[in-house]
Design goal:
Length: about 600
C-alpha cells in the first residue's frame, strides 16, 4: 500500500538530467503485463539504489507507481482503479497525484521511446489534466504497442490497448484522425488475426467494436456469424454463443430486427447443444447439463422462442434434474482456523478463472438452520441466564435496535426467541468464520492470480435466470468490484438487486407478487413478504432463505439491506463480514445453475465438521 503523501512520486521535486535509459527495465520483461512492467521497474529501482544511483532509482520507482494503477478500460469514465483494496484502504490511483507529480509525469513521457510506457504516462496526463496532445499521442502509441503485442502472443493486453485507443479517439472527437486511426487499426486487427492459441480472440475484438459503436454493423455481424458457425463446427457451443450474441447486438445497431431475432434464437440453441454434450461426454454430468438447459430456457424466453419447444425443454430439464441427484455426494471438511487461509488459497488456485469463481462460490456451505437451531438450544440449556435475561442490541449511536426476549414457554414467543438467537449466532460466529477462513483469502487469491476485466463476468450474468433482463450490467459491475475488493461499491450495487431478482423469478413461475390495495393500486411486495411466500421457500430452500433473511433484513443478523436503504451502513461495515458475505451470497446465487426448478438444499452437500 502506498501512503497518500502530498507528492506520490519519488522523482517529484528533482530534474531528470542524467536519467537517460528509462526504457531499460522493459528489456527484462518476457510476457508483458502491467504487473510485470511494475515489477521490472521496482527491481531496477532497487538495483540502482544499491549502486548509489539515487536519481535513477527514484525515476524507476516513479514509473513503477504509474504502472501499478489497475486498468479498468471496461469503464471509459474510470479507466484506472486501485490494484489493491483491503480493510477500507487502497493502493494509489491517478487522482492521488499532485500537480507537482503530474509535472514529473510529463517529463517522464519525454524520456521514454517505448510506445507502451509512453502511452500509459500520456493517458494519465489526459485523465488528470485533459491534455489533448498527450491523449492524441497516447492513442497512437497504444495502437503501435497493441500491434506489437498481438504479434508476440500477448493478445489479451493487445485487445485492451486497442480498446483504450478507441476510447481516447472518441473523447477527442470522432471527426478527428485519432478516432479514424484507432477504428481502422482495430478493424484491421480483427480481419487479419494471427494464428494463435487464443481461439476466442475475435470475440474480444467484436466486444470492443460493439461497445464503441465502431465499424459497419452489418459487415461485423457477418464476421461474427462466420466465427459462430466455425465454433459450432469445432464443437464449441459456448464460444459460438458469444459470437451469436455479438451478431445480435450488431444487427440491433443496424436496425435489422429479423436478423437480430434469428441470431438470438441461434445463441439460445447453443445451450441445448452444450447440455447434450455434457450427457454424451466421457464422464456424463446431468448436473452440468441441467445448468446449461436452465440458461437455455431463459434465453429462449427472452428471445420469444417457440413456447412448445420451451415446454419440451422444461420437461427434459426435470428429467435431467432427477438424474443429477445420483451424482451428489456427501463429504466432510474439517477446518482448522489456523490453517484455513492456506487451504482456501490452495482450493481456488486453478488456471481457469471461471472454475476458480465457482470454487469460491461453492466450496463453503451455507449455514444449516436445523443444525444452528440445535446449537442455540444447547447453548440456552448450558448457559441458563440466556433463557431468563433480556438482551438488547444497540447501534453505533447507542440506540436500542432490537430486544431479544427470554425464551418463554408460550410456543410462538419461544420460537421467535430461538430464531432471533439463531440469526445473532450466525452473524457473530458462523458468518465471521466463513469470511476470515475462506471468502476473503480466496477472493484475494483469485483477484491477484487472474486480474479479470469486468467483461469477463458476462458468462455469469447473461441469460442467467437470477438476473432480470436489463440488469446484467449492474450485477456484472457489482460482482467485479466485489472481487477486486471495492465492497463499498459492490454492496450498494448488489443489495437492492436481490429483492428484484426474487420478484422476477417468482413472476416467471406465475406467482402474483403484488398487493391489491383498497384504492385499487397494486404495489409489488417488498423483500420481507417475498421471502415469506411458500413459493419462495420451495424455489430456494431453507438454507438460502435463512442467509437472505439474516444478511439482509433481520435485526439480530446484519440487516444489511435495511441499513443500506436508509443510509445507516458505514464504510467500515461495507468492508467487514457484512459486505463480504452479501457479495459472496450473490455470487453463489448467480452461479447456482439450477436456481429454477431445484431447491437450494438439493445442491452437493458439504458438511463442515469443525469450525472452531
Amino acid at each position: 500500500m502506498e501512503s497518500l503523501a502530498e507528492n506520490c512520486l519519488p522523482i517529484t521535486g528533482s530534474d531528470l538530467s542524467g536519467v537517460d535509459d528509462l526504457d531499460k527495465p522493459l528489456t527484462t520483461v518476457d510476457r508483458v503485463r502491467w504487473f510485470d512492467v511494475m515489477s521490472a521497474y521496482n527491481a531496477a529501482a532497487k538495483e540502482a539504489k544499491e549502486k548509489g544511483a539515487e536519481k535513477a532509482a527514484n525515476a524507476y520507482r516513479s514509473v513503477a507507481i504509474l504502472c501499478s494503477f489497475h486498468t479498468h478500460f471496461d469503464n471509459a469514465y474510470e479507466p484506472y482503479t486501485a490494484a489493491v483494496i483491503m480493510n477500507g484502504r487502497r493502493s494509489l490511483v491517478p487522482g492521488d497525484l499532485s500537480n507537482a507529480d503530474l509535472d514529473s509525469v510529463a517529463a517522464l513521457r519525454l524520456k521514454t521511446k517505448e510506445p507502451l510506457l509512453r502511452a500509459r504516462v500520456g493517458d494519465i496526463l489526459w485523465v488528470r489534466r485533459h491534455d489533448h496532445i498527450a491523449a492524441k499521442e497516447a492513442s497512437a502509441d497504444y495502437i503501435v504497442a497493441a500491434k506489437a503485442l498481438l504479434n508476440k502472443g500477448n493478445q489479451i493486453l493487445a485487445v485492451d490497448l486497442f480498446r483504450r485507443a478507441l476510447q481516447l479517439g472518441h473523447w477527442l472527437g470522432r471527426e478527428n484522425d485519432a478516432w479514424h486511426d484507432a477504428e481502422a487499426a482495430t478493424l484491421g486487427a480483427l480481419k487479419n488475426l494471427p494464428v494463435t492459441g487464443e481461439r476466442s480472440l475475435a470475440v474480444h475484438f467484436l466486444d470492443i467494436l460493439v461497445q464503441m459503436n465502431a465499424g459497419d454493423a452489418a459487415e461485423l455481424a457477418a464476421i461474427a456469424r462466420q466465427y459462430a458457425e466455425k465454433a459450432l463446427g469445432d464443437k464449441q457451443p459456448s464460444r459460438a454463443r458469444d459470437y451469436r450474441l455479438h451478431e445480435a447486438a450488431l444487427w440491433h445497431r443496424a436496425k435489422d430486427e429479423t436478423n437480430e431475432r434469428v441470431a438470438r434464437l441461434e445463441a439460445a440453441k447453443t445451450y441445448e447443444i452444450e447440455a447434450e454434450r455434457w450427457i454424451e461426454g466421457e464422464k456424463p454430468s446431468y448436473f452440468a447439463a441441467s445448468g446449461a438447459l436452465t440458461k437455455g430456457i431463459e434465453a429462449l424466453r427472452q428471445a420469444h422462442g417457440d413456447p412448445a419447444h420451451i415446454e419440451e425443454l422444461r420437461q427434459r430439464l426435470m428429467r435431467y434434474q432427477r438424474e443429477s441427484m445420483k451424482e451428489m455426494k456427501t463429504f466432510e471438511q474439517r477446518i482448522d482456523i489456523s490453517d484455513a487461509v492456506r487451504q482456501a488459497v490452495e482450493r481456488v488456485t486453478v488456471p481457469d478463472f471461471r472454475e476458480a469463481l465457482k470454487l469460491l462460490a461453492f466450496s463453503m456451505p451455507l449455514v444449516d438452520p436445523d443444525t444452528l437451531r440445535k446449537t442455540v438450544l444447547a447453548e440456552a440449556s448450558e448457559y441458563v441466564w440466556q433463557s431468563i435475561v433480556d438482551t438488547s442490541l444497540i447501534d453505533e449511536s447507542g440506540r436500542i435496535t432490537k430486544n431479544i426476549e427470554p425464551l418463554e414457554r408460550e410456543q410462538s414467543k419461544h420460537e421467535a426467541g430461538i430464531e432471533s438467537r439463531m440469526f445473532r449466532h450466525a452473524s457473530e460466529i458462523d458468518w465471521q468464520i466463513r469470511v476470515s477462513a475462506f471468502i476473503e483469502p480466496a477472493r484475494r487469491q483469485i483477484w491477484s492470480q487472474h486480474l479479470p476485466s469486468e467483461q469477463e463476468f458476462d458468462f455469469l450474468v447473461v441469460d442467467n435466470p437470477f438476473v432480470p433482463p436489463g440488469h446484467e450490467g449492474i450485477f456484472r459491475r457489482g460482482l467485479y468490484h466485489g472481487l477486486q475488493g471495492d465492497l463499498l461499491l459492490s454492496g450498494h450495487l448488489l443489495t437492492p438487486q436481490i429483492e428484484n431478482s426474487i420478484r422476477y423469478i417468482l413472476e416467471q413461475r406465475g406467482v402474483d407478487v403484488s398487493n391489491l390495495q383498497s384504492d385499487l393500486t397494486q404495489p409489488v411486495k417488498v423483500l420481507g413478504p417475498l421471502l415469506d411466500l411458500p413459493e419462495t421457500k420451495k424455489l430456494f430452500g431453507d438454507a438460502v432463505l435463512f442467509e437472505l433473511r439474516g444478511i439482509l433484513i433481520e435485526k439480530t443478523g446484519y440487516s444489511f439491506r435495511n441499513r443500506v436503504a436508509h443510509g445507516f451502513v458505514s464504510e467500515r461495515e461495507c468492508y467487514a463480514p457484512e459486505g463480504l458475505n452479501l457479495w459472496w451470497l450473490v455470487l453463489r446465487l448467480c452461479y447456482t445453475p439450477l436456481i429454477l426448478g431445484q431447491q437450494a438444499n438439493e445442491e452437493p452437500q458439504v458438511r463442515n465438521a469443525d469450525t472452531r
